């Protein structure tokens, strides 16, 4: 960690370097071909052009008036990018959070761009796509081995990409197979049982009329952290098996049909996370089981201020014994919507993901018209069993309320099962006209998505009185029409008007077991059969974008844009099954079933281009955004007068307004024939205007959040890479390279009160490799200096046998990074 002075100097140095370079953008050449791509323009030409599809058509990234960071196939290979977190490290102004509800795993990964950090686990402000087709899982995107490129579009992208592109869009573009046989195979081995095996093959089936590309990938690693309660187990084990198939059919001139399919399975162990408790927990004999680490008191509550404390010597730890209680619980179908055989068989995560799409483009002969059709389907289901108390111990009796629950474990523990399934179907029909100074795109789009989730567990009699409980299914159906018109007013000036009219219809259904509403506080009283409709609501929105683009010179372009975006609303259904008295208390406290959409208005200016005879390629942009009707969580607790028992409700409402502004730099510079440099940096300044969070106020006493920063986002971020390339003397067609990458992310706050945050994170990765003909070999060290700075932070409760500390947030759960990793990778291309 560095102090504020060092951090300021670090950011200042990065910005000074960038200002000298006049701006920057991502996408240096592949490590094994970098010697050629890094050579100055006077030797053999400029850095290669990068094409993106940010406006549903192929454009040079430097001619596209949208803020977009690109990782090409070459860039991905040379920097060792293998995960969404790696992409965030290489993208200024982007964070990934997978830490919420007491767990930090791959069951969900929220991409945070420009500080638009969702407050709810299952809400996203960034939509994900494969070849422009919506995808339900961000984690699935990196199961595509060796893509053509990854595009990170920043700012509202509603006009062309539709629903959920509130803060941006994340698009993975596949390589298109040619009519010649090509292939590759690679093997990577590293420390802690780290390995990856990948293979790809493409070629003709029927000449150039029908071609294919097939890939397979297997990845596995042991975790970096020993489980303090079970030293024979590591925390953070992960494995993924995936395969893809693409067919390209060109039956007639002008018509191209692409069919793509993806299958993947994640099978992870307990996640790498640590617990930091504000209270000390002891067992019956007085032995300390969890050490309290509070360093301040707020609103009468022991808590944490400043930088989050380091973990104690006994953390991280977790109870992960898959004993008869757990096996019985996981084998039962009671209340489940996933078959027990499809779910996890112990502590950890199992996820199955399936994606398929068809993309057809027909360039109508003798016209300037192109008709395009997209069809996509997704199916994702995951099952995760976690130790929700986040400490492993068998010495605390499970007698919190006087006696051990019949059929329960003798010691206190809190295993918890979380499951979710999502299925969706999408279609898009688009017509494009491109002739002379006029470009017009228009079309219609439809998305139908179903989601169901549930959970269960605890310290009771698992499988006897404590069962999994499935919530009712929710559905969102979106119909929209969109357009984009660009007119070249002069040789230098073009104007664009874009927009989307969207109708979102939301539906909430009763649990399969049925539901009886005894009060009309939220839904009409009466009996609702299993799966029957309980609630529905429609929203209509128009989301425009206007762009003015001016070509200053042949190599420099500037633009200004105005855009609006909408994030769909939702229903609160979790507390509808509470007693009538509890529901009335919730209604009296202002909790609502219906939550309105979030809205954003975005203003942006940018500068893109090439300098120094094409050796420098850069982008520079600044933005100001107004986030309104932000959806946040609310908490209500009390005593039910009918049952005389405590209740706790978590709800969601439109309780926030935030202003966001920032500057982003991105770029590549060929310093000499042998040396290439890439630099990037971002300042993300978030300013909360209004906010309401009962849980945070109860903990901290802070009720006026104005002027605070958004949690889970780095205010400062930077990345830099330096690569040296050369020829292997005495070897025909032999090259070598050496590369170092530095990544910086400033600390993130745990909540909107800005009381405690993670330390700043610094990571250095190095690679050294050589290529001889079709064979290449790399050696690498990731996290060279073994930095253990937390990757994420979340407010949580400390669970004890009598739940004495769950009325107020009383702990932190922190995500832990992968430790220093040595590895060797060998690849053969043919």
Description:
- Residues 61-169 form the TonB-dependent receptor plug domain.
- It comes from Nitrospirillum amazonense.
- It is found in: Cell outer membrane.
- The chain has 830 residues and is mostly beta strands.
- The chain has a single domain (4-29, 36-352, 361-417, 429-524, 538-829), classed as Maltoporin, Chain A (Beta Barrel).
- The chain is built from 9 helices and 49 strands.
- The longest helix is centred in the first third of the chain and has 18 residues, at 4-21.
- The radius of gyration is 27 Å and the shape is globular.
- Mean pLDDT is 89; it is low at 1-45.
Main attributes of the structure:
single chain, 830 residues, mainly beta, Maltoporin, Chain A, 22-stranded antiparallel barrel, 5-stranded mixed beta sheet, 49 strands, disordered N terminus
Mean pLDDT: 89
The amount of beta strand, in percent, is over 45%
Low-confidence stretches: 1-45
Global Rg: 27 Å
DSSP strand count: 49
CATH superfamily, by name, is TonB-dependent receptor, beta-barrel domain
CATH class: Mainly Beta
Q: What share of the residues lie within helices?
A: under 10%
Q: Decide which structural class fits the backbone.
A: mainly beta
InterPro entries: Beta-barrel_TonB, Beta-barrel_TonB_sf, Plug_dom, TonB-dep_rcpt-like
Main location: membrane
Keywords: Cell outer membrane, Ion transport, Iron, Iron transport, Membrane, Receptor, Signal, TonB box, Transmembrane, Transmembrane beta strand, Transport
Membrane topology: Multi-pass membrane protein
């Amino acid at each position: 960690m560095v102090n504020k002075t060092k951090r300021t100097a670090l950011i200042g140095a990065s910005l000074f370097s960038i200002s000298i370079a006049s701006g920057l953008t991502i996408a240096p050449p592949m490590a094994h071909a970098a010697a050629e791509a890094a050579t100055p323009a006077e030797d053999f030409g400029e850095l290669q052009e990068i094409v993106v599809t940010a406006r549903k058509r192929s454009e040079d990234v430097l001619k596209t008036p949208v803020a977009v960071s690109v990782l090409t196939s070459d860039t991905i290979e040379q920097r060792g990018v293998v995960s969404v977190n790696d992409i965030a490290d290489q993208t200024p102004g982007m964070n990934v959070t997978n830490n919420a509800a007491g767990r930090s795993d791959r069951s969900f990964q929220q991409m945070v761009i420009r500080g638009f950090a969702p407050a709810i686990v299952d809400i996203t402000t960034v939509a994900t796509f494969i070849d422009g087709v919506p995808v339900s899982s961000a984690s699935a995107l990196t199961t595509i081995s060796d893509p053509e490129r990854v595009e990170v579009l920043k700012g509202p992208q509603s006009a062309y990409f539709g629903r959920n592109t509130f803060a941006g869009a994340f698009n993975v573009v596949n390589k298109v197979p040619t009519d010649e046989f090509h292939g590759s195979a690679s093997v990577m081995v590293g420390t802690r049982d780290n390995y990856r095996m990948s293979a790809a093959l493409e070629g003709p089936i029927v000449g150039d009329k029908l071609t294919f590309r097939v890939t397979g990938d297997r990845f596995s690693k042991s975790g970096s952290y020993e489980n303090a309660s079970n030293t024979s187990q590591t925390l953070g084990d992960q494995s993924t098996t995936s395969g893809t198939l693409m067919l390209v059919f060109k039956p007639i001139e002008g018509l191209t049909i692409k069919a793509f399919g993806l299958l993947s399975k994640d099978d992870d162990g307990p996640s790498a996370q640590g617990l930091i408790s504000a209270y000390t927990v002891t067992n019956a004999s007085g032995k300390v089981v969890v050490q309290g680490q509070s360093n301040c008191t707020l609103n009468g509550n022991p808590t944490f201020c400043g930088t989050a404390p380091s973990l104690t010597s006994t953390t991280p730890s977790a109870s992960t014994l898959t004993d008869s209680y757990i096996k019985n619980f996981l084998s039962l179908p009671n209340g489940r919507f996933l078959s027990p055989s499809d779910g996890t068989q112990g502590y950890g995560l199992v996820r199955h993901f399936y994606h398929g799409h068809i993309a057809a483009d027909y360039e109508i002969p003798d016209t300037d018209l192109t008709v395009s059709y997209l069809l996509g389907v997704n199916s994702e289901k995951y099952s995760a069993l976690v130790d929700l108390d986040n400490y492993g111990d068998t010495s605390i009796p499970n007698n919190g309320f006087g006696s051990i629950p019949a059929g329960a474990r003798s010691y206190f523990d809190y295993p918890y099962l979380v499951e979710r399934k999502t299925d969706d179907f999408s279609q898009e029909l688009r017509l494009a006209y491109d002739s002379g100074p006029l470009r017009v795109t228009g079309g219609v789009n439809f998305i139908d998505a179903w989601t169901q989730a549930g959970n269960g567990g605890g310290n009771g009699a698992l499988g006897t009185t404590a069962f999994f409980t499935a919530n009712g299914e929710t559905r969102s159906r979106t119909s929209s029409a969109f357009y984009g018109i660009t007119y070249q007013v002069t040789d230098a000036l073009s104007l664009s008007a874009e927009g989307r009219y969207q109708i979102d219809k939301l539906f909430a259904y009763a649990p399969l077991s049925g539901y009886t509403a005894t009060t009309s506080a939220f839904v009409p009283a009466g009996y609702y059969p299993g799966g029957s409709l309980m609630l529905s609501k429609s929203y209509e929105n128009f989301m425009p974008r206007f762009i003015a683009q001016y070509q200053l010179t042949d190599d420099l372009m500037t633009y200004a844009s105005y855009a609006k975006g909408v994030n769909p609303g939702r229903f609160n259904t979790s507390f509808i099954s509470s007693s009538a008295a509890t529901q009335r208390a919730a209604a009296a406290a202002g909790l609502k079933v219906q939550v309105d959409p979030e809205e954003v208005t975005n203003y942006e200016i940018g500068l893109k281009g090439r300098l120094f005879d094409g050796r420098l390629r850069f982008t520079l942009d600044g933005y100001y955004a107004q986030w309104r009707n932000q959806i946040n969580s609310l908490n209500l607790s009390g005593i039910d007068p009918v049952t005389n028992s405590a209740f706790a409700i978590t709800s969601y409402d439109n309780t926030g307004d935030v202003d966001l502004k920032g500057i982003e730099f991105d770029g590549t510079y060929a310093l000499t024939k042998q040396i290439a440099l890439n630099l990037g940096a971002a300042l993300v300044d978030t300013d909360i205007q209004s906010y309401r969070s009962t849980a945070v106020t109860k903990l901290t006493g802070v009720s006026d959040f104005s002027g605070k920063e958004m949690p889970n986002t780095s205010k400062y971020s930077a990345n830099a890479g330096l690569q040296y390339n050369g020829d292997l003397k005495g070897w025909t067609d032999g090259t070598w390279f050496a590369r170092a990458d530095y990544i910086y992310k400033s600390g993130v706050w745990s909540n909107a009160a800005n009381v405690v945050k993670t330390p700043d994170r610094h990571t250095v990765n190095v690679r050294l490799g050589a290529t001889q003909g079709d064979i290449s070999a790399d050696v690498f060290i990731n996290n060279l200096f073994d930095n253990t700075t937390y990757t994420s932070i979340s407010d949580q409760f400390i669970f004890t046998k009598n739940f004495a500390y769950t009325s107020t947030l009383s702990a932190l759960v922190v995500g832990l990074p992968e430790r220093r990793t040595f590895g060797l990778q060998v690849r053969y291309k043919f």
